[in-house]
Structure formats: structure tokens, C-alpha cells
Amino acid sequence: QKIRAAIPGTPIVQLVIGDGLSSAAITANAMDCLAAIRDGLKARGIEIGKSIFVRYCRVGAGDAIGDVTGCELVCVLVGERPGLATAESMSAYITYNAYVGMPESKRTVVSNIHKDGTAAVEAGAYVADVIEMILKQKASGVAVIFVGEDLDVLLALCDRIMVINSGRITGIVDARTTTKEDVGLLMTQSEVVSSNPVEGGN
Length: 202
Known about the structure:
Layout: H1 2-6, E1 13-18, H2 23-43, E2 52-54, H3 61-69, E3 73-79, E4 90-96, E5 107-113, H4 120-137, E6 143-146, H5 151-157, E7 160-165, E8 168-174, H6 180-187
Parallel strand pairs: 1-2, 1-3, 5-6
Antiparallel strand pairs: 3-4, 4-5, 7-8
Helix pairs in contact: 2-4
């Protein structure tokens, strides 16, 4: 009843903010990221429900909200466990047709949102892109999206790297076979170029 009272109607996208394991992450990032997401979705004509805050939130709260409201997609902005690098890291957990008890593999995650990773406004604009893509595909999951600029970290953590310059995708490469020089070259391109294309897959 509390969820239904807080979220009237059945929006296409429901945005949720939760302190999770780090309230500092929410204080530092959530409002700027949320504003960028809302602006991006509005520009695409995607209906958004009233954003809500969940205290002591965990990712599964979005599943309950999706169940009750019947919204098409839930995006939960939540503070992550403080690590060695920062206590201000936030992630966006995006779930299509969320329901209580759904497997973790059905979520798409955008992580590393903080001032020394990906800035909140930039991350929010990217999350809006991801939400639009998921709504078109009518599916989420099987991916963790790590946004950053440290090439050593990206090459170590990622299977594939998408390079974006001035809002344009300039290449998608296989992190197992590419080099920092290849990625650096793509970062300077203004046209779509892929020196090490990835065949197939999503």
C-alpha cells in the first residue's frame, strides 16, 4: 500500500534512489545523476514515474516496486559498499519487467559512478541511453557495464570496450586482443572506426 501510495499510476520507467551500503555515495552523486536520467528520458519521450527514495535500500527493493506498480522498467540508484578507493561509489541497477524473486542475471548494471570514476551527470546521460535500448529490446541482464577512462583498469576488467568521443561511438573492440594504443586512437576519432571489431554477440 505504501508503494502504491507513493507511485500512482503505472509509469513506463520508475526511478528509485536508495542509500544501500553507502549514504555518502547517494549524497555525492544521486541528485545530479537522477536529473540527467530524467532529462535524457524526457527528451526521448519516455514516460517516467515520480522518483522515490528507499531508506536502507537493497537492489531487490526495485523488484517489489516493479511487482506492485506494473511498470515496464525499474532503475535503482544505490550506494555501493565502501572500498579502498572511495566510499562514494554508486551504481545503477536496471531491470526490465522486475518481479520479486527474479534472478540477478536479469539485471543490467552501470557501476563506478563517482567523481574519480564516471561523473554523475555523464553517467546519468549514459543510463538514459541504456534504458532506451533495454525498452526497445524488451530485455535486461547478462551484462555489467563499467564506465571509466583508466585504460589499464578497463583492459583488465572488461570483455569488450566501447569508445565514445563527443557523444559518438567511435569503436567497439575486444579487450583481450586490443592494446592501449588502439583504444587511444579510437578516443581521438570523430567518425566510426573499429580497428579490432567484435563479431556477433550483444
